[in-house]
Amino acid sequence: MDPVTLFQARRPRTRPANNWNLAWILSCEIARRFYASHGVVPHVIDHEGAGYYGIRLDLQPCRVNGAQSEALGRVTAQGNVENWRSGRPGDHGLDLVARADHGEALDSLLTEAIRHLQLPVQPAKSHLDCRHKRWAGSWVLLFEVATILALRHHDELGMWNHDSDTHHVATCLDPLAAMPEHPGYFVFRNTSAELVVVAGDGRVLAPAGMENLWHRYMQGASPHQLAMELEETLFPGPVFLDNDG
């Protein structure tokens, strides 16, 4: 089941206070459209500044964007959208939570989020030679896999993908950590503090022995199938969920 279908299937349920479903699906759809062409990268934030939570939208450092990553804004944990270039952190310029709760279509919510963030259709300069353009397929695939897992396990799964959160554990495991414009890492942690670590190019760094997820995808595996394999590693034994297909 793809992330949008999974989101829609689980949408009718009463939304608990710690449900990040809207934040995840909006960020996933933005990554699909803007990661390769613009270098817009969603980073999960558990605590930043005055207690910020949600998914921050950054510009990936590259030849075009420069060496410093600019924060464009944030999708709050509940799903509101902040544009930090026209407003400021903590200013919920676009309230989508109430609209989502009243059943507004996801396409409409996503359109409003993109407009509010002022994301242009075309980047000012081409990113053709940037590494995020080269590795876009695998990185976006992994964010999609992470979204599927987050939608299924919003209250029992930790996931981090910003360098400040992943650098120590990932560089201890990755012989390619010094690669220029490294595609980054995804670190998943279950309630027992067991980790799954995946590089942005699809290499599974922990646990040992798992195949490259990007290679599996190119050989025919679906994002849902890959997510279920990671789920079996993170949550061994039967998993009982409502409306998960």
Task: Give me some keywords for this one.
about 15% strand; four-stranded antiparallel β-sheet; about 240 residues; alpha+beta
Total domains, how many? 1
Discrete helix count = 9
Broad shape: globular
The helix-and-strand class reads: alpha+beta
Helix content: 25-40%
Q: Give the end-to-end Cα distance, rounded to a whole number of Å.
A: 7 Å
Order of helices and strands: HHEEEEHHHHEHEEEHH
Largest beta-sheet characterization? 4 strands, antiparallel
Beta fraction: 15-25%
Q: What's the mean pLDDT score?
A: 88
Q: Which assembly state applies to the chains in this document?
A: single chain
Give the spatial strand order of the biggest sheet: 1-2-3-4
Number of strands: 8
Supply Rg: 17 Å
Weakly predicted, low-confidence segments: none
Notes on the structure:
The chain is α+β, with helices and mostly antiparallel strands and 245 residues long. The protein has one domain (3-234). It has helices at residues 3-10, 21-38, 97-101, 106-116, 131-134, 136-152, 163-173, 213-218, 223-234; strands at 40-48, 52-59, 71-76, 81-83, 158-160, 185-189, 195-199, 204-206. The longest helix is centred in the N-terminal third of the chain and has 18 residues, at 21-38.
Produce a short descriptive summary.
This protein has 245 residues and is an alpha+beta fold. Helices cover 38% and strands 17% of the residues. A four-stranded antiparallel beta sheet has the order 1-2-3-4, covered by helices on one side. The protein has a four-stranded antiparallel beta sheet with strand order 5-6-7-8, sandwiched between helices.
